[in-house]
Specification:
The complex is a heterodimer of chains A (107) and B (328).
Chain A lengths: L3 E3 L4 H6 L5 E6 L4 H16 L5 E6 L4 H6 L7 E6 L2 E7 L4 H7 L1 H4 L1
Chain B lengths: L1 E6 L3 H12 L5 E3 L14 E2 L9 E2 H14 L3 E3 L3 E5 L5 E5 L4 E9 L3 E3 L5 H5 L5 E2 L2 H4 L7 E5 L3 H10 L5 E5 L9 H8 L4 E4 L2 E7 L6 E6 L5 E5 L2 E4 L3 E3 L30 E3 L11 H22 L6 H6 L10
Parallel strand pairs in B: 1-2, 1-8, 2-5, 8-19, 10-17, 11-12, 11-17, 12-13
Antiparallel strand pairs in B: 3-4, 6-7, 7-8, 9-18, 14-15, 15-16
Helix pairs in contact in B: 1-2, 1-7, 5-6
Classes of the chains: A alpha/beta (107), B alpha/beta (328).
C-alpha cells in the first residue's frame, strides 16, 4: 500500500484535525534519499494501519507548509499528534532504525 | 551458500559485481536500504567518467552500473549489514531484516561518509540548517545567505550548485589556497555569488532551532568573528566506513582498510576490500571502479585456489548454464 498524499488544501483535516498520530513525510522527486525511504514508509503504513497514519507531502508543490515547519533537509518525517509536532526524524534511515524511532507509536 | 557477497553498491561494489557475475560467481550485492548507489547518488553532473563525453547524472550512472551487474546475474538486496562474522572460513553476514547469508568470500566496498567538523552546534543543528548534501537540501535555501565549508572539489561543486538557490554563498576554507582541481576552482571563482573566506576555521555554529550564523577563527592571527548566515554545508572530506570491521580487519594510519600492496587482499583470508574504504588519496568514481575490478579478480583467484571454484572462470563462462558444476 502506498501512503496517501496530503497537501496545503487538505492539511487541516488530514493532519491538524486527525484523531490518531499522523506521520508526514516531507519529500521531493529530486531527492534521492526520499525515493529510498518512501517504500519503507509505505511498508510501515501497511504493517500498522490502525496505529499510525502515514502521509506524504511534496515540498515542491506545497512550499508554504515546508516553510512553516522550517524544513531545510529532506526527507524529514514529522509525527503530529493533535495537530502538534511530537517527533521529528531527519534523513533517510533503514527500516529497523525507523521502527526504533517510531517505537512509541507502532510497537 | 554463496561464492561471494559484495557489501556496498557504489562504483567499487557494482564493478566488482559486474566482473564476478561475468565469471559466473553469482554475487549477492548488499546495497543498503537507503544509501544504495553510494555517494554518487548525491551528486549532480559527473563530467569525468570516461565514456560519457556529454556528462551523466550521478544517479543515472549508478542505475546503469546496477543494470549491467544484474544483466550478468548479480542479485541486489536493498538491505543493510548489521553484523559481520569473518573469523571463520565461511563468512557470515546478518542484515537489518534479520536474514543471514553465508559466502566463501567477501568484498567489502562500503565507501566513505561525509566528515563532520566535530563542533557542538553542528550536530545540534544538523538538518536545521547544517547539511552534508547540497543537492538534497539546497532547494530550501532560496534567497538565503549560506556557507560551504571546505576547499576541495566537492566544496567547489556544492558552492557552484548552491548559487542556483542562495543569494550568496561563502566558501570558508582554513587555508589561503584551495585543494580543488583547477577547473572547479575557476568555475567557483568566476561565480559572482560566491565569496571566499580564507584562512578561517568554523569553531561554532549559532542558532536555537535554525542556523543564524557561524563563529570563525582566523587561522593566522587567532582572532574570532561572527558571520551571520542561514545555512552551513559541510564539505571537508570523507571518512572511510569501517565500523563493521574495525575490530576484525587491520586498518591503516589513515583509517582505511589495509590491503596488501596493489591487491584487494585484507588481513583476513577470503575478505577483499575495494573503493573509497581502502583509498585515502584518489577517491574517484573511476578509481573505485578499477578497485572493484581488482577485488573481483582476486576473489576469482582465491576461489580457484581453494579448489571449489573448479574450472578457471573463463572456462566456466563458456559452459553456459552450468556454473554450478565446479562447486564441490
Amino acid at each position: 500500500m502506498t501512503a496517501k498524499a496530503t497537501s496545503e488544501s487538505t492539511w487541516q483535516q488530514d493532519v491538524i484535525d486527525a484523531e490518531g498520530p499522523v506521520l508526514v513525510d516531507f519529500w521531493a522527486a529530486w531527492c534521492g534519499p526520499c525515493r529510498m525511504v518512501g517504500p519503507i514508509l509505505d511498508e510501515i503504513a501497511t504493517e500498522h494501519p490502525e496505529k499510525i497514519t502515514v502521509l506524504k507531502l511534496n515540498v515542491d508543490e506545497n512550499p508554504n507548509l515546508a516553510m512553516e515547519y522550517q524544513i531545510t533537509s529532506i526527507p524529514a518525517m514529522k509525527v503530529f499528534s493533535k495537530g502538534e509536532v511530537e517527533k521529528t526524524i531527519i534523513g533517510a534511515k533503514p527500516k529497523f532504525a525507523l521502527e526504533q524511532d517510531l517505537a512509541a507509536y507502532i510497537a | 551458500m554463496r561464492q561471494v557477497i559484495i557489501i556496498g553498491s557504489g562504483p567499487a561494489g557494482y564493478t566488482a559485481a559486474i566482473y564476478a557475475a561475468r565469471a559466473n560467481l553469482e554475487p549477492l550485492v548488499i546495497a543498503s536500504s537507503v544509501e544504495a548507489g553510494g555517494e554518487l547518488m548525491n551528486t549532480t553532473e559527473v563530467e569525468n567518467f570516461p565514456g560519457f563525453p556529454e556528462g551523466i547524472m550521478g544517479p543515472d550512472l549508478m542505475a546503469k552500473m546496477q543494470e549491467q551487474a544484474e544483466r550478468f546475474g548479480a542479485e541486489v538486496l536493498y538491505d543493510d549489514v548489521v553484523e559481520l562474522d569473518i573469523s571463520g572460513d565461511i563468512k557470515k553476514v546478518t542484515l537489518g531484516s534479520g536474514a543471514t547469508h553465508e559466502a566463501e568470500s567477501l568484498v567489502f566496498a562500503t565507501g566513505s561518509a561525509p566528515r563532520k567538523i566535530g563542533i557542538e552546534g553542528e550536530s545540534r543543528l544538523s538538518g536545521r540548517g547544517v547539511s552534508y548534501c547540497a543537492t538534497c537540501d539546497g532547494f530550501f535555501f532560496r534567497e538565503r545567505v549560506i556557507a560551504v565549508v571546505g576547499g576541495g572539489d566537492s566544496a567547489m561543486e556544492e558552492a557552484t550548485f548552491l548559487t542556483k538557490f542562495a543569494s550568496k554563498v561563502y566558501v570558508i576554507h582554513r587555508r589561503g589556497e584551495l585543494r580543488a582541481s583547477k577547473i572547479m576552482q575557476d568555475r567557483a571563482m568566476a561565480n559572482e555569488k560566491i565569496e571566499f573566506v580564507w584562512n578561517s576555521e568554523v569553531v561554532d555554529i549559532l542558532g536555537e532551532d535554525a542556523v543564524t550564523g557561524v563563529v570563525l577563527q582566523d587561522t593566522v592571527d587567532g582572532s574570532t568573528r561572527e558571520l551571520p548566515l542561514q545555512g552551513v554545508f559541510v564539505a571537508i572530506g570523507y571518512d572511510p566506513r569501517t565500523h563493521l570491521v574495525h575490530q576484525s580487519l587491520e586498518l591503516t594510519e589513515h583509517g582505511t582498510v589495509w590491503v596488501d600492496g596493489r591487491t584487494s587482499r585484507t588481513s583476513v583470508p577470503g575478505v577483499f576490500a575495494a573503493g573509497d574504504v581502502i583509498d585515502p588519496t584518489y577517491r574517484q568514481a573511476v578509481t573505485a571502479a578499477g578497485s572493484g575490478t581488482v577485488a573481483a579478480l582476486d576473489v576469482e583467484h582465491y576461489l580457484a585456489a581453494r579448489g571449489d571454484a573448479g574450472l578457471p572462470a573463463t572456462e566456466v563462462a563458456e559452459i553456459d548454464g552450468l556454473a554450478d558444476v565446479g562447486v564441490a
